[in-house]
C-alpha cells in the first residue's frame, strides 16, 4: 500500500532539487536537474522561467514513478529575490533577472536613493538598497527596456511562478516581498504603495501570505503535467535560504543558519527589527519572525570553478588534497569576491584575489584557500551581525557543502563557533516538504530531522586563523583600487 508523503522542490542557481518525504520526515527519494544561468556579460545572470517549470514537472514525475507513495501536498522554494515580469496573460516578457549575483542595477540604485533617501529606505525597508534587492532590477528593465516594460503587469519569483503554474494563484510570501526593497514596508508587513508606484509603476503586486500557508490547490491541468493528484494543497513557498533554515530548525531567536551552497547565506533570527547598512533586515518565513541576514556572492561557485580548471579534478580528490595542505594553505590567502560581493562589503565591483602564490603551490593549496576564504567571509559577516545588535547563540549548518567534514571544520576553526548538523542536510527542498506536511498534519522539525552531530572548533587552529583573518581583512582595502580598475575593463 502506498505510504502518505509530500513533495518539496527548490529551484536553485545551479540546479533544481526535489524530494519525496514521508509524513514522518523519512527521505524516500530525491532527484536533481542541473542547469546554468545565462550570462549576458559581466555582472549579468538570467534564467528562462520555462526551465523552472520543465524541471519541476520532470522532478515530480521521477519522484513518483515508483508509485510507492500517495502525495498529499507540495512545497516550493527558489533562489531569490529574482525578477520575472509577465504581461496580463502571465506570459514572461524576458528571462528572469537573478538575485544579488546579478549586479547590473548600480545606476538605478543611485537614482532611487537620490529620490527616496538612503536612510529612509533602510528605516522603512530594513535594508540598504543594493544589487540584491528586487526593486532596482525592476527599475533597470523600465529604463533599459521601456517597450518591453510597457507590457509588464505582474512580478514573479521562482517559487511564486511554480505556485501560479500549479494552482492558478498569484501570490507571494512576505519574506520574498521584504527583499523587494524599497517596495515593502517591513514594519507594517505590507507593500508600500507610494514607493511601489515610484519604482515599479504599472505592476500589479501580488497579494501576500506566509510561506507555510496554502496558496491554493493543484489544478487539473497541472496534475496532468506533473503526474500529481489534482486538488492537493500547495504552499505559498519562499526564498531558498529561508526554506533551508526551516529544514534544520534554525528559526528560533538567537539561531544563525549557515547555508553551504553555490553561495554562502547567513540567516540570524532576531526578536525585533534590526538594520545595518551592510546586512539585510527582513521579515521571516514564519509569522512573527524577523531576521538579520547576510550573503556571500560565491562560495561553492569558487570550488566548482577550481574543479573545472583541473581536467582531472573532482571535489572528493581536491578535498583530500586540501586536507593535506593544512591550515593557512601554505601561505595562500584568497578573497572570494569572484562575482562581486554582497554582505558585508556590498561591492558589485569587487573581484577575486589570490595572494601569496608561488611556483610550489598545489591544487590542494588553492582549494584549501577557497574553503578558508568562505570561513573568513563568514567570520566577517558574524562580526557585523553582532555589531548591529545580533545575539548569536546557536549555529546550524545546512546544504551540500556540509556533506564532507573538512569545510564545516574549517569554518568552525576560523569563527571559533560550534555548528550543529542535522540528520538530513539536503536543504531547501526538504524545508519545502516540511512546510507542505504542515498543511496536512502537525509536524516538528526536531522529530523530522534530529541533530546528528556538532562540529566543534579546534582552539589551536582558531588561534592560528586569527592572524590570517587579520591579513584577510587588510587584503580587500589594499587591493580595491586595482580591482575596481580591472572590473571597469571587464565591463567594456
From TrEMBL:
Superkingdom classification of source: Bacteria
Ranges where the Carbohydrate kinase FGGY C-terminal domain occurs: 257-437
Alphabetical list of InterPro entries matching this protein: ATPase_NBD, Carb_kinase_FGGY, Carb_kinase_FGGY_CS, FGGY_C, FGGY_Carb_Kinase, FGGY_N
Keyword Cytoplasm (UniProt): no
Domain Carbohydrate kinase FGGY N-terminal: 6-245
PANTHER family cross-referenced by the UniProt entry: SUGAR KINASE (PTHR43095), XYLULOSE KINASE (PTHR43095:SF5)
Family listed: Belongs to the FGGY kinase family.
Protein name per Swiss-Prot or TrEMBL: FGGY-family carbohydrate kinase
Lineage summary: Bacteria, Bacillati, Actinomycetota, Actinomycetes, Kitasatosporales
Amino acid at each position: 500500500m502506498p505510504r502518505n508523503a509530500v513533495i518539496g522542490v527548490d529551484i536553485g542557481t545551479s540546479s533544481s532539487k526535489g524530494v519525496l518525504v514521508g509524513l514522518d520526515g523519512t527521505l524516500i527519494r530525491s532527484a536533481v536537474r542541473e542547469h546554468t544561468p545565462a550570462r549576458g556579460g559581466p555582472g549579468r545572470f538570467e534564467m528562462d522561467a520555462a526551465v523552472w517549470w520543465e524541471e519541476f514537472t520532470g522532478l515530480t514525475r521521477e519522484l513518483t514513478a515508483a508509485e510507492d507513495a500517495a502525495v498529499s501536498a507540495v512545497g516550493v522554494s527558489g533562489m531569490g529575490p529574482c525578477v520575472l515580469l509577465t504581461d496580463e496573460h502571465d506570459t514572461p516578457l524576458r528571462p528572469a533577472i537573478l538575485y544579488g549575483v546579478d549586479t547590473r542595477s548600480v545606476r538605478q540604485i543611485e537614482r532611487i536613493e537620490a529620490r527616496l533617501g538612503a536612510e529612509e529606505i533602510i528605516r522603512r525597508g530594513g535594508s540598504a538598497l543594493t544589487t540584491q534587492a528586487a526593486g532596482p532590477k525592476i527599475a533597470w528593465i523600465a529604463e533599459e527596456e521601456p517597450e518591453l516594460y510597457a507590457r509588464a503587469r505582474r512580478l514573479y519569483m521562482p517559487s511564486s511562478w511554480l505556485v501560479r503554474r500549479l494552482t492558478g494563484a498569484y501570490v507571494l510570501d512576505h519574506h520574498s516581498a521584504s527583499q523587494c526593497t524599497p517596495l515593502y514596508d517591513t514594519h507594517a508587513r505590507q507593500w508600500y504603495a507610494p514607493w511601489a508606484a515610484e519604482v515599479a509603476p504599472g505592476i500589479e503586486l501580488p497579494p501576500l501570505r506566509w510561506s507555510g500557508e496554502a496558496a491554493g490547490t493543484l489544478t487539473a491541468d497541472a496534475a496532468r503535467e506533473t503526474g500529481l493528484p489534482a486538488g492537493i494543497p500547495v504552499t505559498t513557498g519562499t526564498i531558498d535560504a529561508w526554506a533551508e533554515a526551516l529544514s534544520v530548525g534554525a528559526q528560533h531567536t538567537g539561531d544563525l543558519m549557515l547555508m553551504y551552497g553555490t553561495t554562502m547565506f547567513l540567516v540570524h533570527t532576531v526578536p525585533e527589527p534590526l538594520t545595518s547598512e551592510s546586512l539585510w533586515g527582513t521579515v521571516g518565513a514564519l509569522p512573527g519572525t524577523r531576521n538579520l541576514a547576510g550573503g556571500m556572492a560565491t562560495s561553492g561557485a569558487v570550488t566548482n570553478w577550481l574543479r573545472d580548471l583541473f581536467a582531472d579534478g573532482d571535489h572528493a580528490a581536491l578535498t583530500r588534497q586540501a586536507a593535506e595542505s593544512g591550515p593557512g594553505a601554505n601561505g595562500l590567502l584568497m578573497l572570494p569576491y569572484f562575482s562581486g560581493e554582497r554582505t558585508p562589503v556590498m561591492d558589485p565591483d569587487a573581484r577575486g584575489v589570490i595572494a601569496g602564490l608561488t611556483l610550489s603551490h598545489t591544487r590542494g593549496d588553492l582549494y584549501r584557500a577557497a574553503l578558508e576564504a568562505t570561513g573568513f567571509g563568514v567570520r566577517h559577516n558574524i562580526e557585523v551581525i553582532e555589531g548591529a545588535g545580533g545575539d548569536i547563540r546557536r549555529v546550524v549548518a545546512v546544504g551540500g557543502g556540509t556533506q564532507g567534514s573538512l569545510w564545516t571544520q574549517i569554518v568552525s576553526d576560523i569563527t571559533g563557533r560550534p555548528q550543529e548538523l542535522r540528520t538530513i542536510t539536503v536543504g531547501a527542498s526538504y524545508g519545502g516538504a516540511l512546510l507542505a506536511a504542515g498543511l496536512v498534519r502537525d509536524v516538528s522539525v526536531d522529530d523530522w530531522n534530529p541533530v546528528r552531530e556538532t562540529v566543534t572548533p579546534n582552539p589551536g587552529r582558531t588561534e592560528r586563523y586569527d592572524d590570517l583573518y587579520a591579513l584577510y581583512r587588510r587584503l580587500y582595502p589594499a587591493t580595491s583600487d586595482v580591482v575596481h580598475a580591472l572590473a571597469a575593463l571587464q565591463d567594456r
